[in-house]
Structure to design on (268 residues):
């Protein structure tokens, strides 16, 4: 549960990656997600991993922060491997192991590893956005990108604020869940023994106090915003306006060239 707390958190720093325009970083993350789906071989994924490692090194992010964000995906990665590896006996492919009417094929194992690696790279690449961007700059960036839709009645500022608040309060909700679990374990609750169904049922008593805590936190946040005269984005000013610099354009050119090379190399 603690490993989920790292999702959406910002790691303070003053690197080149931290100082980049948030609009540029969001655009590059979107381009990265599209390009990684165009990669069709492991060599391309190796190049993607090397590029992500270079970005992590330049940004000064500790490796433990990246690994902590991957821990919640362990179950999903294992499930992906199993679903892609297991085939019916009538399915084509070289059988590595046969159990009953099901066999594990070599082609399935390779396919499972391929999709699992794609999932891990997607999570690492997208997490760099929140790790290197403050919530305020993230809100400003989302609002700036959605601003052209205001003429069509889209509440750009409110959407950006909701997305940022949701990311910001993930660690808070995880901490609250951990406190409730510890309190119930002190009273004899068991969340670890038994089969999967029994352990799932053990988490049901957490829902009521957790929802009460969520609504209480939301009410306190609303009162805090109202006491500070928050009235949405209308007439709102900013201490620092977003403006692209030369470093942003250079970084954009380098990133686009790198993504093009990844796609070209990954399609060979």
């Amino acid at each position: 549960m603690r490993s989920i707390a790292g999702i959406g958190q910002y790691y303070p720093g003053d690197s080149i990656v931290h100082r980049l325009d948030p609009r540029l970083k969001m655009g590059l993350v979107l381009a990265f997600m599209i390009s990684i789906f165009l990669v069709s071989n492991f060599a391309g994924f190796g190049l993607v991993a090397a590029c992500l490692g270079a970005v992590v090194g330049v940004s000064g992010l500790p490796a433990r922060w990246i690994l902590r964000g991957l821990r919640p995906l362990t179950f999903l990665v294992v499930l992906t491997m199993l679903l892609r590896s297991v085939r019916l006996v009538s399915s084509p492919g070289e059988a590595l192991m046969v159990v009953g009417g099901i066999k594990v094929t070599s082609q399935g194992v390779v396919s499972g590893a391929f999709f699992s690696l794609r999932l891990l790279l997607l999570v690492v690449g997208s997490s760099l956005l929140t790790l290197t961007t403050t919530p305020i700059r993230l809100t400003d960036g989302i609002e700036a990108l959605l601003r052209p839709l205001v003429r069509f009645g889209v509440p750009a500022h409110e959407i950006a604020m909701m997305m940022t608040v949701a990311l910001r309060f993930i660690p808070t909700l995880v901490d609250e869940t951990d406190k409730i679990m510890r309190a119930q374990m002190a009273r004899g609750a068991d969340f670890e023994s038994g089969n999967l169904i029994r352990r799932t049922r053990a988490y049901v008593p957490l829902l009521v106090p957790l929802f009460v805590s969520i609504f209480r936190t939301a009410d306190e946040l609303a009162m805090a915003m109202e006491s500070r005269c928050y009235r949405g984005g209308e007439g709102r000013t900013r201490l620092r306006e977003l403006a692209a610099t030369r470093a942003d354009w250079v970084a954009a050119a380098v990133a686009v060239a790198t993504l093009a090379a990844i796609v070209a190399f990954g399609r060979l």
About this structure: Strands lie at 86-88, 95-99, 102-105. The chain has one domain: 2-266. The first strand starts at residue 86 and ends at 88.
